[in-house]
Amino acid sequence: MDEIKITFLGTGDAIPTKKRSHSAILASFANENILIDCGEGTQRQFKIAGLNYMKLTRILITHWHGDHILGLPGLLQTLALNNYSRTLHIYVPKGTRHHIDLIFKLFIFAGKIKYEVHEASHGIIVNEKDFKIESAEMSHGTPANAYSIILKDRIKLDKKKLKKFKLPNSPLIGELASGKDIVFKGKKIRAAQVVYIDKGKKVTFVLDTSFNKNAIELAKNSDLLIAESSFAAEEIAKAQEYRHLTAPQTAEIAKKSKSKKLILTHLSQRYEHNPRIIEKEAKKIFKNTKIAKDFDIIKF
């Protein structure tokens, strides 16, 4: 199975700090490089991380608050100036494609980049041979989505077991690989004898939102849940006012969704010097929890 590489380009909230830039996360696997949100300065974060933004294939926008999208004009202009030749697929919450159209009209890269905008609501929004992307609507007082990237299960041949049947290199092997039984030299060979399931992987991104059932459902059985944790428990009134999550609420989503690992991001500047407050509260509910820092990398 392909490895998924997650690079945290920005892990702060509305006001960036010396240590944390605005929200941006890159998910890379196979030939895909998918950017989740594009806060101010994201293209510079690419440079610092040694990543090539010309390899971008898709951008998933969770919502249109400034700390999640102010980097878009600069990034798109840089792509245009470097003759970006792909078709860039941009996914936005339902009813908000006009924001992308306006950006392309306002800046000099209009007409210089091929792009397609997809309004994403609830369900599967991308369904390729080896992976899919699912979306769910969040509760943030403005159109907002969370997203899951899912690498599908694959049938693979066990070469050691296959060798015992002394099959020649022929279409018969392809049939076994697709799960079909075959007959070779008068003997039946069942696909189950020589194949195994290469289990897929799932990573879910839950950014700005208040606690809701959609987040739990979308994150169900995630290998990795990356979620905002803007406030400590004592600030629950503020969290409710601004429709954000507290650390215990984020951990509750991880626990109820039966996710394997939780990474906290989108930390408020108030925890700049003591982020352990957030981590400690979350770990009381969901032990396998860590806080992301800018330029952290996770591979799984």
Could you list some keywords that capture this structure?
300 residues; alpha/beta; Metallo-beta-lactamase, Chain A; seven-stranded mixed sheet
Q: What is the CATH C-level name of the largest domain? A: Alpha Beta
The helix-and-strand class reads alpha/beta
Q: How many separate structural domains?
A: 2
State the share of residues found in helices, binned by percent: 25-40%
Tell me the major beta sheet: 7 strands, mixed
How are strands sequenced across the largest beta sheet?
6-5-4-3-2-1-18
In the predicted model, the low-confidence regions spanning at least 5 consecutive residues are none
CATH topology name of the largest domain, in short, is Metallo-beta-lactamase, Chain A
| SSE ordering | EEEHEHHEHEEEEEHHEEEEHEHHEHEE
What's the shape?
globular
| Strands, count | 18
Secondary structure: elements and pairs:
Blueprint: E1 5-10, E2 24-29, E3 32-36, H1 42-49, E4 58-60, H2 66-69, H3 72-81, E5 87-93, H4 97-106, E6 114-120, E7 123-127, E8 131-137, E9 145-151, E10 154-157, H5 159-163, H6 171-177, E11 182-184, E12 187-189, E13 195-198, E14 201-206, H7 213-218, E15 224-228, H8 236-242, H9 247-256, E16 262-265, H10 276-285, E17 289-291, E18 297-299
Parallel strand pairs: 3-4, 4-5, 5-6, 14-15, 15-16, 16-17
Antiparallel strand pairs: 1-2, 1-18, 2-3, 7-8, 8-9, 9-14, 10-13, 11-12
